[in-house]
């Protein structure tokens, strides 16, 4: 069995006491970004499982896209990542 060497940790502990591993992350070929997949990437970056630059490169995201996901989760929780809830959580200008 071959184990690929990677930079960084293989598992991290989340604030709620659960653990997250690299196998919990979405596939690098993901094209349909549902809220749960976005949340998994945000959690991985915020807990140090994956660096922001690795997430951007792996998932072909822009810096702005990843940052908007992070801000939405920080301000309103993971429910804000649902596309049907965008207008509900959008900041008033």
TrEMBL record:
Database matches in Pfam families: DUF1153 (PF06627)
Disordered: annotated segments: 1-29
GO-annotated molecular function: sequence-specific DNA binding
Biased composition (Polar residues): 16-29
Signal peptide, first to last residue: none
SUPFAM superfamilies in alphabetical order: TrpR-like
Name by which UniProt lists this protein: DUF1153 domain-containing protein
Organismal lineage: Bacteria, Pseudomonadati, Pseudomonadota, Alphaproteobacteria, Rhodobacterales
């Amino acid at each position: 069995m071959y184990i690929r060497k990677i930079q960084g940790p293989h598992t991290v502990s989340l604030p709620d006491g659960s653990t997250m591993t690299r196998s919990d992350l979405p596939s690098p070929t993901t094209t349909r970004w549902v809220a749960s997949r976005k949340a998994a990437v945000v959690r991985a970056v915020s807990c140090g499982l994956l660096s922001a630059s690795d997430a951007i490169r792996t998932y072909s995201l822009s810096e702005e896209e990843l940052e908007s996901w992070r801000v939405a989760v920080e301000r309103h929780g993971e429910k804000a990542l649902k596309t049907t809830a965008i207008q509900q959580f959008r900041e008033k200008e």
